[in-house]
Amino acid sequence: MTDKVFEKSIKKQFEFDEEVASVFDDMLNRSVPFYKEMQRLTINFALNYLEENDTVYDLGCSTASTLIELAKHSSKKFDLIGIDNSSAMLARAENKCKAFGVDIKLLNEDLHNIDYENAKLVISNYTLQFIRPLQREKLVKKIYENLEENGIFIFSEKVISSDKVLGKQYIDEYYEFKKTQGYSEFEIAQKREALENVLIPYTDEENKKMILDAGFSHCETLFKWVNFATFIAIKK
Ligand SMILES: C[S@@+](CC[C@H](N)C(=O)[O-])C[C@H]1O[C@@H](n2cnc3c(N)ncnc32)[C@H](O)[C@@H]1O
Ligand SMILES: O=C(O)C(=O)C[C@]1(C(=O)O)C=C[C@@H](O)C=C1
User: Fold this and answer.
1) ipTM over 0.95
2) Under 8 Å CB-to-CB from 40, ≥6 apart: which residues?
3) Which residues form the Methyltransferase domain (predicted)?
């Protein structure tokens, strides 16, 4: 279904409710530049490290697209766990898992309440940005502590520039991208307002500092398009 959520006048903050969930796959594909490429890289790099029966967590799994693709791209069997606190998203995830015949454990939980036992790989694409900064640092520490030795954390985030002028150019370029995807200026402005104080982006440097402060020995940018970046962190 086509995302028309912000065509009408909206006063409330952005939420992962029934309306957003019903168009979410289209919203993501049209709102995150190179989303499919980022997902392909996430899966390929994940598969470089995964062995039979490893446990994989997807934080903010939404409609489970990434875990389904991961399962489809490997002949190995993994213990796949998707976590999200939006019932509307998880209802879609459940239907998709059935339709694709993929076995994924879906947990309707807050990310802070999970133990991340036996985690070999943790994925979190465009989710940490919705967690308040202090809580975000705590969650990343918890992920680090529970990852197995040589465990991997792959995450993607909307990012900002630490340079004011470049930051404004990032936003202009991003809104041009949104226009090419068929979003009107009104829709763009409305969503921007709805996301204010809900989506809190860090700079590349802040993301890497958070990761190294949590204890990871290594963090690199795997992919970047202007204000969207994918990172890989390794626990050694
Ligand atoms: C932008 S979406 C993630 C997209 C998804 N990773 C993908 O690539 O298809 C963010 C998701 O995180 C979930 N989320 C946000 N905060 C959460 C929290 N504290 N606990 C659990 N899920 C959360 C939302 O419900 C939403 O489905
Ligand atoms: O549309 C925007 O402005 C976005 O930031 C895209 C974004 C994201 O990065 O998470 C914001 C909300 C939705 O979850 C889907 C995509």
Assistant:
1) yes
2) none
3) 56-151
